[in-house]
Every structure is written in structure tokens, then in C-alpha cells.
Amino acid sequence: MNASEFRRRGKEMVDYVANYLEGIEGRQVYPDVEPGYLRPLIPAAAPQEPDTFEDIISDIEKIIMPGAASPACTELETVMMDWLGKMLELPEAFLAGKAGEGGGVIQGSASEATLMALLAARTKVIHRLQAESPDLTQAAIMEKLVAYSSDQAHSSVERAGLIGGVKLKAIPSDGNFAMRASALQEALEGDKAAGLIPFFVVATLGTTTCCSFDNLLEVGPICNKEDVWLHIDAAYAGSAFICPEFRPLLNGVEFADSFNFNPHKWLLVNFDCSAMWVKKRADLTGAFRLDPTYLKHSHQDSGFITDYRHWQIPLGRRFRSLKMWFVFRMYGVKGLQAYIRKHVQLSHEFESLVRQDPRFEICAEVTLGLVCFRLKGSNKVNEALLQRINSAKKIHLVPCHLRDKFVLRFAICSRTVESAHVQVAWEHIKEMAANVLQAERK
Amino acid sequence: MNASEFRRRGKEMVDYVANYLEGIEGRQVYPDVEPGYLRPLIPAAAPQEPDTFEDIISDIEKIIMPGAASPACTELETVMMDWLGKMLELPEAFLAGKAGEGGGVIQGSASEATLMALLAARTKVIHRLQAESPDLTQAAIMEKLVAYSSDQAHSSVERAGLIGGVKLKAIPSDGNFAMRASALQEALEGDKAAGLIPFFVVATLGTTTCCSFDNLLEVGPICNKEDVWLHIDAAYAGSAFICPEFRPLLNGVEFADSFNFNPHKWLLVNFDCSAMWVKKRADLTGAFRLDPTYLKHSHQDSGFITDYRHWQIPLGRRFRSLKMWFVFRMYGVKGLQAYIRKHVQLSHEFESLVRQDPRFEICAEVTLGLVCFRLKGSNKVNEALLQRINSAKKIHLVPCHLRDKFVLRFAICSRTVESAHVQVAWEHIKEMAANVLQAERK
């Protein structure tokens, strides 16, 4: 949507809200619909081609308004998470469908998703061990629990461990910054021999530092064999998996218990919108419901009636699935795929510019929209380059350390980025680099 | 703001956003401002009288835009939380000021605030006990930790205990549904004698069921004497404390370590916006920072540079303080006080209608905007009345249990509610009651 259409549609929306407020006394205070009303009114999958804005707005009045905030808010979320799961070709087990045991939920951030997964895994292992040995206290078990992630994982994983009161160990990544079977297996064996209880592994697809990918096809089977919960954090990279050519990066998701990525990062849905799926919703809700027997009676968790407050830390919820509905329909799957592909193509364009300049080096494989690069030479000269670039305030780069190397990160992430911006940025970087190198020679 | 002004202002805002997007390439990618730039540009307290919309918008361009999303998002939040703290006459220790040790943060919900307080208290007591006895493991301490709240507290308190992996005990409330000194003291003594470690008390001001108030002036000193963290959950009632006549309900807050209420409930700020203050920000951030020594050097937590990601579960943050800024200025403190007073007056109006009808009884003292009432008689007849009312869908009531009594709750909570609505609702309730009583007689 360009600025001129935004002006028009935005003003129509303002009128829609004002009309709603003016006519509110004429509306019923409580909806007439029955649980499960919404799914049959909506296609089973996102459209391939864009829908018109008129169609979407007319569906708001027809489909959402009769369901008011509740149950429409819950039901649209369940269906949108199924749409998105299908776009990613997630295994069927992760979808809510009409009576599935899995399903998706919108969290606020990947940090919350990781924490929820860790807490669910913690409860599950405690229940299992207490069922085997009824004398074991929760504290006695928790003291021995160990969670694992790669040494490249986001700091929020370590934080989830702190909050959950369990140990978290970093598995050394390989030369491509990926977690591999051998290192994980070694850690698990060592800890089990020491009497500890491995219970949770976070695999990262698209690390923050350099967009590396843990080896799911190796790590997944180990987790399944050891009966350890596998959570996948694909916060940034997940959006790319809607493109068939990037979907292989997600192979191995079938071994996972939970999977998360952030449509607010790279799928044009405004912050916040973090999409999380689980294979067994009862694992997630069981961690926080006070009476587990209550879980089992009634069709409360049948896919028709989903009580999302048991899936998350806060109780209150916003109607975030509306953002997904609008974006998926206004772009269509093809439009979203084109958006991802353009960004990846632009990052390769930047990569090839860097590779053509012998003063620079590429520091990690470029897979999606991130290019890690640096001047060949000391960390000091690269720190000076970064400082010069960020002080000029023409572009802004966030650095990282890869092992001992100080590295600059060029991230393609704006909705409106074009090749011309990449060219201008590269010319600017070269100019700053020339200045830095000249200053160094003096 | 009425619907007609909303139409005008809303469309101006749409144009503002479109102009911003169209002109974005002309803007600098990184702000020029220094940390702490914002506070001197904004008054030290909220205005008493409303500001004009023009003034507010012009301040957006002058004050917010030069600070971009960062640091403006953080700094406006700190200042707005100080404004709001001053409206409530919170003790100075809770304010950030220019170099305070305390301060406020916007959480998503009261559940999150309670959880953050519990986690901070848990870390603090573990550190204290490990400093005294370095051989104590975290698990050995956690096994003995006990948190307390009234038996009227919200279920989210019990949930925080589950997530935090600590015991939570319910203190029997008195005849007015309030937690009192004697019952709390008895529980503490019993648990200490049994070798347990009391570490956290949640006092509720304005319970969900009947808007009762725990006795802070009794409970507070006990918590301080026992070195137990006192958290106050005033999710609903907190907004009323901006009125001097209701401020005495908050007396005793000076004994608390943390305090929370939800401006999104009753202060005209849209969901979500849950305001939380702590006396010692280091207690909160210390629970989640991986290197506590890092806390102490640099002026990172001086009130100028506040890293809110250490204050909450998620890492990402929305610019929620803008909502507060707009609302506080558009209403002025007097406008907000008038709004609260009107609601309280309307609830008393409903209360007196109920009291005039001998078939009904009032079930709890009416202090703010909630009236708990029922037909004199069995729970069954009241359940039938509720069902009849909610099936008619003219009004909607949410019930509760007070001890063994099934009780109806009439909540004044709409922005546009007037005496006429209360009258219509009461006539409707009387009609439904007559039908129920007649049906019973048959």
C-alpha cells in the first residue's frame, strides 16, 4: 500500500471507528455466535494472490463484528496461526485444525515463547519423574534439570533458564556457528553421568549474530531419543520458510515439540506478533492450570474452545490476529514470498560488492538478509570503521563478535529498501573505510 | 473527545503518518540527542487542566521525533511513570526522578507485574541466604520459599508462584474480605517454625471479586519487620487513588517494595498498559542480568539511561507511554478525577436502587465502581437470575462467589456510561428478577 492509498484507507478506518462508537448503543452487548462459528466462514488457507481492501473490510463487518471481541479474537487467532503454519508447511501435528492436539498462539516476543516452552518442558519432566518416584520433590528435581542451547543462541534463552530456575549450558558450535550432534551428545552424556537430568534443548534457526542454522536433522533425533523437549527459535529466519527454496532450512522441525518465529521481524506484521506452535497444547496449558484434571473433561481444548490465557504469561490479550489477517490477504502468499526474495537478493548484491573489494572479507555464509563482513585486519580497525559509520548517521550498523573477531552486520530489513539504497550504503562504507585506513597509516 | 472531533483528529493523524512515510528518506537514521534529553523538555507533572490537541501534536514533532524510537521511547516512559506516580502521591522512593533508585515501568498486565516482583524477591532472598551460607544451593532454598496472598487474591498470583517454582499460601481474609495482621502473622510463624522461608506477600487493593482492600497498615509493617518483599496489586482500584478522597485507601504503600495498577482498566488508557513501580530498581534488574557486577559500574541505571528490557519478561517494547502522554494531557488531572468520581457516583446510585428493593441485598461494601448484590435467597435463584439476564443480552454481568454465596456483580466501567444506563439496567434486572421469582413460585 503506497502513501496515497494509505491516506484514503486510513481515513476510511477512522470513519469506521467513529461510526462504531456513535452506533454502539444499537449493538448487542454479547454475541449470538456459538464456539467454532468462525472457522467455516474463512478459507482454510491464506490466498495466493492479494485480496482487495474492500473485501477485507466487508469481512470485518460480516465475520468479526458478530463475534465481537470474544470469541472472534480467539478464533481468528487459531485460524490465522493455521494459515501461517500451512504457509511454512509445518507438520500437521502443529496445527489446531478442527480437533488437533497442537496449535498456534501469538506471543509478544520470542523471549516469551522460549520461556513458555521451557516452563512447559519443566512441568512435564517433573510430572513424569514424580509419577515414577512419588517421593521426589519438585525442588529435588529442579536442582538437577539442565537445558541446552548453542553458544550462538540469543541471550533470552539464558534468561529463560534464570527465570525458570534451571541450569542452562552452552553447546560449542562448529566452524559454521551451528550446533551439531557430537557436541550435544557429549554434553548430554557427561551430564547424565554426573546425575543431572537433561530436559530441554533450544535449537536456533538464523542466529542473531550471523544467521547461522543449528543442524536440526542431527539434533532433533537425539532430543527425541533422550525424551528431551526440543524448542526451535527461528525468530528472524522463520519468515523465509514461506518460500519453497528456503523451506529446507526448516527440515527437522518434525522432531520438535515447539516452534517459534516473529512475523513482526520480517513478514510485514507490525510489532508485536511472535508466532508459536506446539504439538501438544496440553503440555503448554498443563504447566499453568491449577487443576490438571480440569484439563481433561469437557471439550475445552478441542480446537473449538481455546483458552489462550493458559498459553502465555499475561492473562489479557490484544486482537493481534487482525494484523495477520490484513497482511496475509493484502499481500497474498505470493506477495509475501516476493518480499522475502527481494531482501535476500539485495543481501547477495551487497555480499558480491564486498567480495569484489580485496580490503574486505565476508565472515559467515550469506543465506538470508544478513551480511557479516569486516575489513581484513585487526578488530581495532573494524571498531574504528563502525564508529565512523555510525557517527556519520547516514546508515546504521549493529556489530557482533564471531569468536574473537569483531564483525560488522549489514541487515536488509526495511519495507521499502531498493538496490539503490544498497549501492549508496556500500559507497558510503567504502568512503569511511578509506578514511579509516588512511588515518591508520599516518 | 467526541466522535466528530475523533473523525477530524484521526484523519490528521493518518496524514501525519503518511507524510512521515513519504518523507522518511530525508530523516536521519540515528538521533542526535544525548541520554536524558527528554526530561527537561517536559513539565515535571501532569497538567491539571486539559491541553489542546494542537499542543500535543506539536510536542510530538518537537520532543519525540528528534529522539526517534530510542531513546524517546524509554525516556518518555520514565517521565510518564513519574507523572502518574505523582498523581497517586506515591512516596518519592518509587519515582525515578533525576537520580532515584526506584522508578516505574509499563508492563503488559498485572499478572506480569506480580510475576516480575515475585522473581525479583526470589533472587533477592536467594542471594541474601547464599551470602550468609555459601554452601546453600538455589534449589535447597527454593524448596523452602513461601509466598502469601489473601484468599481473595486474583488467580494470577497463584500462577506466578507456579511459574516461579515456589509455594503460595492463601491467608484467610476477614469478614470484609480483607487480609489482616493476625492471620498473616499466624501463617508466617507457623511456616518459620516448620523451617520454611517466607519471602513474598501480595496485598490486594480492590479485589476482583468484590473490590475489598487488604489492610496495608497492618500487613506492611509485618512484611518490613520480617524482611519479606511486599507487592501491592491494585490492578483495578489504583486509578481511583488520583482522587484525594480515595487516596487514603493507598495508605501503607510506603511499606511496599513494589506497586502495580492498570491504567488500561480505569484511567482511559487503551489496553495494554499496566503501571508498575519499584523502590529499588536494582532488585528488579538484578534478577535477570547475567553479570550482577555489571549493574554497578557506569551510570547505566542513573535514571538517565534505563534499560527496560531488564525490567520485564519480553525484550522488545512498544511505545506505550505515548498513550499515557496523550490521555493525561487531553483530560488533565481534573478531567481524569471527574471521570473516576462519576463512575463511583453511578455505582452508589445503583447501590441505593438495590437497597430500596427489599427482595435484594448488597453483599460487600461499595467503595468504587463495583456493586456486589443478589436476591435474598438461594444460590440457585441467583444463578437463574444471572442466566436470565445474560441470555437476554441487554446487559452483561459477571458473577462471583463470596464465601458460599453466589453473587452478581454490577460494574460501572464504560467511558460513556450515564445515569440513564444505570436506570435502564436496574429496571431490566428487576423485570428479570420478577420473572425468576414467579417461575420459582410455580
Automatic annotation (TrEMBL), chains A, B:
Pathway: Catecholamine biosynthesis; dopamine biosynthesis; dopamine from L-tyrosine: step 2/2. The modification N6-(pyridoxal phosphate)lysine is found at residue 265. GO terms for molecular function: aromatic-L-amino-acid decarboxylase activity; pyridoxal phosphate binding. Its cofactor is pyridoxal 5'-phosphate. Its EC number is 4.1.1.28. PROSITE patterns: DDC_GAD_HDC_YDC. GO terms for biological process: amino acid metabolic process; carboxylic acid metabolic process; catecholamine biosynthetic process; serotonin biosynthetic process. Keywords: Catecholamine biosynthesis, Decarboxylase, Lyase, Pyridoxal phosphate. GO terms for cellular component: cytoplasm. Homodimer. This is Aromatic-L-amino-acid decarboxylase. It comes from Saimiri boliviensis boliviensis (Bolivian squirrel monkey). The gene is DDC.
